[in-house]
Amino acid sequence: MQLAALKHRTESEDCFALDNKHVRVRVHTGKDDVGQVFAYYTDNYMPTESVKKIELKKIGSGQVSDYWAATLKAPYHRLKYTFEIVGKDGTKVILGDRGISEFSKKNLNEDGSYFKRPYLHEIDMTKTPDWVKQTVWYQIFPERFANGDKSNDPKNVKPWNPQDHPGRDDFYGGDLQGIIDHLDYLQELGVTGLYMCPIFKAPSNHKYDTIDYFDIDPDFGDKELFNKLVNEAHKRGMKIMLDAVFNHLGDKSMQWQDVVKNGEKSRFKDWFHINYFPVEPYKNPSKGEGEAPYDTFAFEKHMPKLNTANPEVQEYLLEIATYWVKYFDIDAWRLDVANEVDHHFWRKFHDELVKIKPDFYIVGEIWHSARPWLNGDEFSGIMNYAYTLQIEDHFFKKKTSANNLVEHLTDQLMMYRDMTNQVMMNMLDSHDTARILTVAKDDQELALQALTFMFLQLGSPCIYYGTEMGMNGGNDPDCRKPMDWSKKDKDTWKRVHNLIKYRLDNSETLSKGQILLSVTKDGLIKVKRTGNQEIVAYFNTTNKDIKITVNDNISQGYKNGILSPKGFVVYNSEI
What we know:
Blueprint (H helix, E strand, L loop, with lengths): L14 E5 L2 E9 L3 E9 L9 E4 L1 E5 L3 E9 L5 E9 L4 E5 L2 E4 L2 H4 L6 E3 L12 H4 L3 E4 L1 H4 L30 H6 L1 H7 L3 E4 L3 E2 L10 E5 L6 H13 L3 E6 L9 H9 L48 H16 L5 E4 L7 H14 L4 E4 L16 E2 L2 H11 L6 H12 L4 H4 L3 E3 L8 H4 L4 H12 L4 E5 L26 H15 L1 H6 L1 E6 L5 E6 L3 E6 L6 E2 L6 E6 L2 E12 L2
Parallel strand pairs: 11-12, 11-20, 12-15, 15-16, 16-17, 17-18, 19-20
Antiparallel strand pairs: 1-2, 2-6, 3-4, 3-7, 5-6, 7-8, 7-10, 8-9, 13-14, 21-22, 22-23, 23-26, 24-26, 25-26
Helix pairs in contact: 8-9, 10-11, 10-14, 14-15
């Protein structure tokens, strides 16, 4: 047995409270190395001779590890537990708090062999909002969704043409009224959550260079109109998520302009990370111009980075964060460049918001693994790029095999607690990426196959505006074309609508049920979801027809027991 591969950590994704009487535990073992894993557990103050024994189930295989899990009962809100690991070679060991020891009755009765959960405090438990687990998100880039009020169009607005290839500084006149006008459309499509890119006052079309967080950009409308949008969305059962850019300010902001004008004498100089004065002209290190006078988002001179350790900055940003919840009843914040803001600030941010709304949803834009932010005191989840981009690598780019995909996705799932995985924001494209149809080389069947696979994963799925219309587009800014309203009710629209409906109709199992990913001997990717029912799906990402006989609830390329390349079949069965 590979002893070095045996791993378990308390108070982590390997051991987390489901409630004050149940603890979920996971154990990592070497791949294909272990035959069985058992847990022995009892109350902290009970003798070890009183332990109960439960066998852990194998819940997945990653690149180098197998994963095992079980739920342990803690009737007195305390727990001690240890593991018996049975190798396929017949050896047995104890994996306990003080390391690995030989399996024997004596060692099993040693209190030092047991991991401890001293008390399951309600306040310490990682909690995520239940409503998110049953939400299908729709991301809107407001400037390009719909022009509902031509009276607030910016100067030099371009004609609404979905076939255009937008430039970085182009405007098409999309606004809040355009979103309100299409709420019935969004309800018909089936989405239950609207995520909008920034709507606050800013000079650009994307609004990530904020001037004033307390004001709606006049090109989009005003606060009264936004209030109407929130109320009308809520009437239709839709949640509202806004985009917060708290890593940096726009250089046109009052605070930064004061620094530009007054230099070291500016009362806002400590609001930013300034290396030297004067701050202009900006020197770009990436272009070999020398040391930058101030820190920015990337090397973007128009986005000076905020010093979120400064109490004045904290007070300012927390006032913004709570203002839109208190007075406009938004349900969620998506946090731009979230990984570059200090953890201390995000913990304050979290606490202030859940005081107002205990089930508030906080999503960080993090493109990599994000354990430090996902322990229940900062973010609910993240934009799950580390997970979903691997789907693209296999389905679209063929960079990885089916086995590689399943292993990598399983390893990603094991990084986080179940309740965290359930509220990850899963997307295959966004305002920051090329559209999936373009990445799929304009192969709509392939794009829909990957989208369906994503919809069956743990996490809250999100589609980018226009995906249901079969829109294409390269990297930013080409992915931000004006919405093509001419393709409603066409084949792609109907299929995306049906996929959303299937997700919502089966939301209990798909949002909270267990997931097991594997590859069949014929090369099909198998997704098995187990909750109050069992849902099984097969995806053919090979280049040949494969025989499989199942009933189908939704499918593509499946006929007479043959699943074609780019095809999938999904079916439900009672447990």
